[in-house]
Amino acid sequence: MLTRRRLISAAVLWPLASNVLAQTCGRITPRQTEGPFFKTNTPQRITLLEPGAKAPRLVVAGQVLSPDCTPLKGALLDFWHADEHGEYDNQGFRYRGHQYTDAEGRYRLETILPAEYPGRARHIHVKVQPAGGRLLTTQLYFPNQPGNQRDGLFRQDLVMQMSEPGAGAFDFVVA
Ligand SMILES: [Fe+2]
């Protein structure tokens, strides 16, 4: 039963709740299709670099955060992307690997720049799952790519920040 007293306390608490909501890390990272090339049981590793790979190097780094900006320790990130020819390794695990965030919710992926392939902008696939939380499947994009505007899946809010070519930054916000 909604009593007069409860109504008053709700009115008092409301501004507090609004303040808490204002301290967000932005919107929850949008979901995207996993596409046709996801594979389970990837190796746990931070570097996907293959011996002798000649493609330009890429490092992607950032944090996994809750909506109230808490860094999430031990969150799973499972990455996969096309090789320098725009092809996925569907037999083995080239350019596939998973890792977990550190105590500050940080991750770091060392790999090559994936090539574009027909119909798609340059992108990296990833699944992110906080410990005991819900799995988020999405894709990361590169800034200022001619292919971005031709790809119906492309989203500006999934573009990595790149201060220099080969160094991408992206923070995931997960529920
Ligand atoms: Fe893809």
Textual characterization of the structure:
The protein has 175 residues and is mostly beta strands. Helix content is 11%, strand content 27%. The chain has 1 helix and 9 strands; from the N terminus they run αβββββββββ. The protein has one helix at 4-22, and strands spanning 57-65, 76-80, 96-100, 106-112, 123-129, 136-141, 161-164, 167-169, 172-173. Strands 1, 4, 7, 8 and 9 form a 5-stranded mixed sheet that branches. Strand 7 (161-164) and strand 8 (167-169) form a beta hairpin. The longest helix is centred in the first third of the chain and has 19 residues, at 4-22. The model is unreliable at 14-23 (pLDDT under 50). The structure holds fe (ii) ion (FE2). The site of fe (ii) ion has 5 residues, from strand 5.
Largest sheet: 5 strands, mixed
What integer is the average pLDDT?
90
Strand content: 25-35%
Distance between the termini: 31 Å
Low-confidence parts: 14-23
Class by SSE composition: mainly beta
Helicity, as a percent range: 10-25%
Q: Roughly how many Å is the radius of gyration?
A: 19 Å
Number of helices in the DSSP assignment: 1
Please supply descriptive tags for the structure shown above.
mainly beta; 5-stranded mixed β-sheet; 4-stranded antiparallel β-sheet; globular; binds fe (ii) ion
Give a quick rundown of the structure.
The chain is built from one helix and nine strands, in the order αβββββββββ. The protein is mainly beta and 175 residues long. The longest helix has 19 residues, at 4-22.
